[in-house]
Amino acid sequence: MLSACRGRVALFYSNWLIVNASQHLTWNDIQTVPARNVGLVLGAKPGNRYFTRRINTAAALYHAGKVKWLLVSGDNGKKEYDEPSAMQQALIAKGVPEAAIFCDYAGFSTLDSVVRARKVFGENRITIISQAFHNQRAIWLAQQYGIDAIGVNAPDLNKRHGTYTRLREKLARVSAVLDAKILHRQPKYLGAGVTIGADSAHGCPSRQ
């Protein structure tokens, strides 16, 4: 009984923190989004509807002149699974120049993607592209690690198709608060710094 009560409190508190921190920091209308240098596209399983809608939104944001560069960050932990390369190719298919895309192959979690944007890629002001529920958590995490982040909301799935994701998100918010506030967790990998810009040779290097 007590354990269940504590669990409900943790769910409520983490959700309250994250929702309040991201108020007025996300946009649905690309035309009204403040322009920034870099857009961070958060990874998803290639080909699913979350992935496709994030790609469409990121491409539209780029073509609207709201970001100059797109940093695609996702899981590349297995040889046969490569979210960043899939995002890169999908963006190119949407007319985004290859030279405007940078890949982060170690975005194994939202925290990893957000914190690496600063600690590896040197970006302290970013526009995050994902669904609204995900942007809220990503923005809150960014704030905990000294990053000025706003979000552009890709279209979500309807309630019937997004039930599992919404349940998982509730637990992810508790985990995010635990990681940032209690454990002070850092990304799984950091590594050498990368500069995003026209003079950079990084882009999306071939996987080794």
TrEMBL record:
Gene Ontology CC: plasma membrane
Superkingdom field: Bacteria
Domain DUF218: 40-163
Pfam families in UniProt: DUF218
Segments crossing the lipid bilayer: none
Name assigned to this protein: Vancomycin high temperature exclusion protein
Organism name: Salmonella enterica
